[in-house]
Amino acid sequence: MMETTDEEIARKVQKGDTQSFGLLIERYEQKLLRYAKKFIFDSEEAKDLVQEVFMKAYMNIRSFEISRRFSPWIYRVAHNEFINAIRKKKKSPVFYIDFDIFFPHPISTQGADSEANKQDLKRMLDECLGKLDPKYREPLILYYFEEMDYKEISEILKIPISTVGVRLQRGKSVLKKIMKNLDTI
Amino acid sequence: MNNDANKKLIRDRVLTAIKNGQVKMRPKWHFILKAILMAVGGIILILCILYLASFIFFVLRQTGVIFVPIFGFRGWYAFLVSIPWLLVLLLLIFIILLEILARHYSFAYRQPLLYFAIAVLLFAIIGGYIVATTHFHDRMFRYSQRHKLPFAGQMYRGYGEQRFKNIHRGIITEITRDGFIMENRRGETLTIIITRLTRLPLGADFSKGDMVVVFGDRENKTVRAIGIRNAR
Question: Which pTM does this prediction carry?
Answer without folding.
Answer: 0.79
